[in-house]
């Protein structure tokens, strides 16, 4: 049995706490919202983020970042990339011993183009980083909290760290964990797929059908391959759980916040209105800035990414960009 701290008591942080508690580990959830912390401690629920399901008695919560860090040598990051730097600075101010960092956030930083692992190593004093693992794949918190069968991947350049995380999270009833070693490719895929989820939601908002979505997913894989390989990842990763698996689940499910954002954008909302109307962070809106710039610097053809960027940041109409995509020069697949 391990003692584990989760930074961020959102929907995914709470769902992971459910798994770890079911696996009989002691879990301490950190969150700044005092009412959320009190609800978890008193009623074992987090109704604002996950209106269904209960947390095991092994799960507790705190508003003290110091208590969360001192509780364990295993730190799980479950915060949006928008606030990641500020949270890591807070951790760095309080950390006193080496920790294994497990990240579940999915995104790239605009301007820096850094992956989450790179941000962690840029901010946390290296003597306090025991290892880094990305826990990523085709998962929705709403299904995990209900104990529906789910698969995910524990990815690290250190094989033993990947296996350790596999062991503490794997649940033979509903949560199967694989391991992987391509950290670059997995982190990139988990970030980029959010852009295509927005695109898929745009198709939904316009009333387009399954044919359009199937075409989107197929061509998105081509773009992902170009970006991932050009940025140092392995092509094989694209065809696994962290690649096509995550892409499919986020482009086809109404649970996806990025998908829902795309629907709203297609129906006339601007980015600010869309974000304001949603209870969870739309990571794809930030990531598209980064991957759009990267694709231009690397001279890569990424027409779907370009289209999403044009809708969000150039206020171009969704049907207009779809028409442009359909009228591109004919070519071999």
In short:
By secondary structure, the protein is an alpha/beta fold. It has helices at residues 11-22, 34-43, 65-70, 81-94, 116-123, 141-144, 159-169, 183-205, 210-230, 241-252, 257-266, 271-276, 283-297, 303-313, 318-326; strands at 3-7, 26-30, 59-62, 74-77, 99-103, 129-136, 150-155, 175-180. It has 2 domains: 3-181, NAD(P)-binding Rossmann-like Domain (Rossmann fold, 3-Layer(aba) Sandwich); 184-326, N-(1-d-carboxylethyl)-l-norvaline Dehydrogenase, domain 2 (Orthogonal Bundle).
Describe the secondary structure blueprint for this structure.
Layout: E1 3-7, H1 11-22, E2 26-30, H2 34-43, E3 59-62, H3 65-70, E4 74-77, H4 81-94, E5 99-103, H5 116-123, E6 129-136, H6 141-144, E7 150-155, H7 159-169, E8 175-180, H8 183-205, H9 210-230, H10 241-252, H11 257-266, H12 271-276, H13 283-297, H14 303-313, H15 318-326
Helix pairs in contact: 4-5, 8-9, 8-10, 8-11, 8-13, 8-14, 9-10, 13-14, 14-15
Task: Describe what you observe in this structure.
The protein has 333 residues and is α/β, with parallel strands linked by helices. It folds into 2 domains: 179 residues, 3-Layer(aba) Sandwich (Rossmann fold); 143 residues, N-(1-d-carboxylethyl)-l-norvaline Dehydrogenase, domain 2 (Orthogonal Bundle), CATH 1.10.1040. Helices cover 52% and strands 13% of the residues. Strands 3-2-1-4-5-6-7-8 form an 8-stranded mixed β-sheet, sandwiched between helices. Helix 8 packs antiparallel against helix 9, helix 8 runs parallel beside helix 11 and helix 14 runs antiparallel to helix 15. The mean pLDDT is 94.
């Amino acid at each position: 049995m391990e003692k584990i701290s989760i930074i961020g008591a959102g929907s995914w942080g709470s769902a992971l706490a459910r798994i770890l508690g079911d696996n009989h580990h002691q879990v301490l959830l950190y969150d700044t919202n005092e009412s959320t912390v009190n609800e978890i401690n008193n009623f074992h629920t987090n109704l604002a983020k996950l209106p269904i399901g209960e947390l095991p008695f092994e799960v507790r919560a705190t508003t003290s970042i110091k208590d969360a860090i001192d509780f364990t040598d295993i730190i799980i990051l479950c915060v949006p990339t928008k606030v990641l730097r500020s949270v890591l600075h807070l951790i760095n101010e309080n950390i006193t011993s080496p920790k294994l960092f497990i990240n579940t956030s999915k995104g790239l930083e605009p301007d820096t183009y850094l992956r989450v692992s790179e941000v962690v190593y840029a901010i946390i004093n290296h003597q306090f980083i025991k290892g880094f693992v990305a826990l990523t794949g085709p998962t929705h918190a709403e299904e995990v909290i209900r104990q529906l069968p789910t698969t995910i991947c524990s990815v690290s350049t250190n094989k033993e760290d990947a296996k350790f995380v596999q062991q503490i999270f794997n649940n033979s009833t509903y949560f199967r964990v694989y391991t992987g070693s391509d950290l670059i490719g997995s982190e990139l895929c988990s970030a980029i797929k959010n852009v295509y989820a927005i695109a898929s939601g745009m198709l939904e908002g316009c009333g387009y059908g399954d044919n359009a979505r199937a075409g989107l997913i197929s061509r998105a894989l081509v773009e992902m391959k170009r970006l991932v390989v050009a940025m140092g990842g392995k092509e094989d990763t694209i065809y696994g759980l962290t690649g096509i698996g995550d892409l499919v689940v986020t482009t086809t499910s109404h649970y996806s916040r990025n998908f829902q954002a795309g629907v709203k954008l297609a129906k006339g909302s601007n980015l600010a209105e869309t974000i304001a109307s949603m209870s969870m962070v739309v990571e794809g809106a930030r990531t598209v800035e980064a991957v759009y710039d990267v694709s231009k610097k690397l001279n890569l053809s990424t027409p779907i990414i370009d289209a999403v960027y044009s809708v969000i940041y150039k206020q171009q109409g969704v049907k207009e960009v779809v028409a442009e995509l359909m009228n591109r020069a004919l070519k071999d697949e």
